[in-house]
Amino acid sequence: MHCRSCEMMIEEEINKIPGIKKIDVDHKKGIAEILYDDVPPPEELIKQAIKDAGYETGTEKRHIFSRNTKDYTDLITSISIVIIIYLILSAAGIHGVGFSTTDDLSNIWVIFLIGITAGMSSCMALVGGLVLGMAARFAEKNPQASPLQKFKPHIFFNAGRIISYFFLGGLIGTIGSTIKFSPGILGYLVITAGIVMLFLGLQLIKIFPVISRFQLTLPKVISKTFGIVRHAPKEYSNKNAMTLGALTFFLPCGFTQAMQVYAISTGSFTTGAVVMGIFALGTTPGMLGIGGLTSIFKGKKADKFFTFIGVTVIALAFFNISNGLNLAGISLLPSTTSTEQGKNIVPPKDEDGKQIINMTQSYRGYSPNEFTVKKGIPVKWVIESEDNYSCASSLILPKYEISKNLTQGENIIEFTPSETGRVSFTCSMGMYKGWINVIE
User: Fold this and answer.
1) Model confidence pTM above 0.90
2) pLDDT tens figures, 58-113
3) Contact at 8 Å (CB) between 408 and 384?
4) How far apart (Å, rounded) are the C-alpha atoms in residues 211 and 225?
């Protein structure tokens, strides 16, 4: 089993067996506990009910590495699909995550993509049970409702979710404006978010069964504090559905927390609100279709589906960790200090005792993105910004604690390199980068 939704489907099938008084399924333990009347139901009926739900019974010790060859076959297939998709996007000219836009959120589609991934995986696992339970209570209260009417709880739940994510995202963005994060701290925050995503992805691919027992679940303290569980069992109402959706902002979903970290780092109510609102909107397809998706992707089909999602999540995790390392100014490759670093790069111009380097910034990044300068001589860095509404317009040089939001036209940054080596610069998200080689 993968999540609370799996539990509910198994419970529903077993409850159809006569004589069952209560059923409690735990996806983390892999156990179904059944309370029955005087005569126990036939074991064959229970196994058949579990099979009808799309699952199987048996015992399996959790090893560090999976001993099921099918898991590795699914993994190789999923990796191949992800690589093919990447190559197709690259062939279509989609190399980066930025594109020209009319606001300062050129990576909106990336946030939306992460939302879709979360809605199909961790958010579905964490919130799916609440959604299905709420929909089930509505159906029980309205047995004559049409299929379209039964969709109503999902609409109100997601409406409450998007609205709360928008306003609460703006709130934490405002809080971030009172805290000035250094590029290094921002880098470590992004790395942390990437590590959380990596852990979630490793759980989904099932290659490491031993880590599946460590799941992000709803802590009782949080559920009691914010009344999430209190709203869930109430008799259905549109208000309760919206409230329940709104309160999911506080659930410990790794993807949600990663986006919350990003929203805080923006230091802006508007940007923080848009980040969290777009993320919630991205999770909506998975949340709206959870009833159909959980009936389609279950049992063996679910293994393939979650393995593919897991590979995608891991790829995004490494992408975030790489960006975080760029922001923190950490290079995994050894830095050289010889003059060989810049032998193929045009040297800077000299003007009034300063080294002049020229660069153009656009929505595609920086051009050129590598320079050579001499140690101890002031540098005048002239940057022509062609698109100040892209992610690349927020420029950071961590080594010298320089952070500048580029405006349309000419921008000038001045500093004096104090030691030799390869110094990196990057956009505020660590996605676009370049280097300044400092030589004797």
Assistant:
1) no
2) 876 667 777 778 888 888 988 998 889 878 866 765 544 433 333 344 467 777 87
3) no
4) 29
